[in-house]
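Reviewer 2 asked us to include a model.

Predict the structure of this chain.
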Amino acid sequence: QVQLVESGGGLVQAGGSLRLSCAASGRFFSVNAMGWYRQAPGKQRELVAGISSGGTINYADSVKGRFTISRDNAKNTVYLQMVSLKPEDTAVYYCYGNVVTATIRLGEYRYWGQGTQVTVSS
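Predicted model (structure tokens):
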């Protein structure tokens, strides 16, 4: 009974900005690493950014300097601030969280958000 719910996608012009949010809810002990993947039509899913529970961050080269990942541990929420958006950023963005639960057996399990569409027009 863990859900990750995303929000913040939409349609923007090139050069614009969007902020994505992803909040985990349900029954769990903690959320460790969180982050974002994206998938464009006909393309493989690509890791965009990740952040550990302690705040260590990594980005895909294609978004460095333009995207910022952050998290609010008290809210079990991860954010992706996107600026200077380009048409090639168009994709469905999926958040993930490595969630510690004991519903069946204690362990860390990756849960996924439902996806949110980001479309950047030229």
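Residues 10 and 118 are 5 Å apart (CA to CA). The two ends are 41 Å apart (CA to CA). We have added this to the supplementary material.
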